[in-house]
TrEMBL record:
Alphabetized InterPro entries for the sequence: LD-transpeptidase_YkuD-like, LD_TPept_cat_dom, LD_TPept_scaffold_dom
PANTHER family membership: BLR7131 PROTEIN (PTHR41533:SF2), L,D-TRANSPEPTIDASE HI_1667-RELATED (PTHR41533)
Name by which UniProt lists this protein: Murein L,D-transpeptidase YcbB/YkuD
Domain named L,D-TPase catalytic: residues: 226-316
Length: 350
């Protein structure tokens, strides 16, 4: 008799759980039509529609490992240069989740569905932020939310991650693969994870700089086999090739006249451009050498112009006059230009 009673109790409990799950599914479908605080409402709708509006995170399971992994991942987004405040922390509360998962009869279907939806939206937001950046000027959230940007879908990533052996790795794998981003991410993980071990502290100045550059690195959507990247703060230009990279030092602008930031196709390259000689070099170095040897100017490809831009035919007498009053003259060094056309990402001499 006792066995029969226990079996009846078990069947009754299972029936309640199934009813609860169905009620949550109906509530998910209903709330998706009215919630206005989601970052990616269309993406969340597509995700649940493709899953028949079934609960993913608060369903009847004994060990909701991926639910807890998701919460912990959202807690520690600073290691990716992101902010915890962007992922619904006021909605995704640990006490509420513990209450829901402890007993499937705890919490109304409305509460469970709300938690479910916001957790999904937070994860889809994180996936897009990791891949595209959260402030991408070319791809704002409303554009990404329309879906399938260059073959990338946050919903597909999340679905695959749920079936993956390592959920966290599957999510973090959407980050850029460039060496610049990888180095920044490793450094950020080091200072946020191992040095500070605190996911909630507001980033210090150095951390902010790393986070900003990680964000910018996500905007780089270059898919060419070869491309040029200029790192302004480090004064370096890197020419990326499929099997190697070449790095060169470059001059950049000043805070008053900053180097413009852009992403553009390269149609040609000109080497040895015209160089306007600084006045102190012109007066103290070039003029004395030219007075000793008039052929020095031609040998070194120097030409002299007046302040109106007219070419000056330098003679010994004129050079002596210029030396006495050099303020109205400038020197330029001009090499023979060699141009390159761009063919399938590689330069060809012309």
């Amino acid at each position: 008799m006792k066995i029969i009673v226990n079996l009846a109790t078990l069947l009754f409990t299972l029936t309640i759980l199934r009813c609860n799950d169905k009620a949550v599914s109906r509530e998910i479908e209903t709330q998706l039509e009215c919630l206005t605080e989601l970052n990616y409402p269309m993406s969340v709708k597509r995700f649940y529609k493709n899953n028949d509006f079934q609960s993913i995170w608060v369903q009847s399971v004994e060990k909701p490992t991926k639910t807890w992994s998701s919460m912990l991942l959202l807690d520690c987004v600073l290691q990716y240069g992101l902010s915890h405040e962007d992922y619904h922390p006021e909605k995704l509360l640990y006490p509420k989740l513990r209450e829901i998962l402890k007993d499937q009869r705890n919490g109304t279907a409305e509460e469970r569905a709300t938690f479910e939806i916001y957790l999904t939206d937070a994860l889809l937001t994180l996936i897009n932020d990791l891949h595209f950046g959260k402030a991408n000027p070319l791809l704002p959230r409303r554009v990404i939310d329309e879906g399938n940007i260059s073959g990338f879908s946050a919903e597909a990533v999340l679905k695959n991650a749920l079936g993956a052996k390592d959920f966290l790795v599957a999510i973090s794998d959407v980050q850029p693969k460039s060496q610049t981003y990888t180095d920044l991410q490793k450094y950020m993980f080091l200072i946020r994870g191992q040095y500070l071990d605190d996911c909630y502290t507001v980033p210090e100045e150095e951390v902010r700089k790393v986070a900003i550059n990680m964000e910018r690195a996500k905007w780089n959507t270059v898919s060419a086999r070869a491309y040029v990247e200029v790192n302004i703060p480090s004064y370096k230009l890197t020419y990326h090739l499929p099997d190697t990279s070449l790095t060169f030092k470059v001059a950049v602008g000043t805070p008053e006249k900053p180097t413009p930031e852009l992403m553009s196709a390269i149609s040609y390259i000109g080497t040895a451009p015209d160089w306007k000689v600084p006045n102190n070099i012109f007066i103290n170095d070039i003029l004395p050498k030219a007075l000793k040897d008039i052929g020095y100017l031609e040998q070194k490809h120097y030409t002299i112009y007046d302040n109106k831009g007219y070419f000056i035919n330098a003679t010994p007498a004129l050079l002596i006059s210029i030396q006495k009053n050099p303020t109205g003259f400038v020197a330029r060094q001009i090499f023979r230009m060699r141009t390159f056309t761009w063919n399938n990402g590689f330069p060809l001499s012309k």
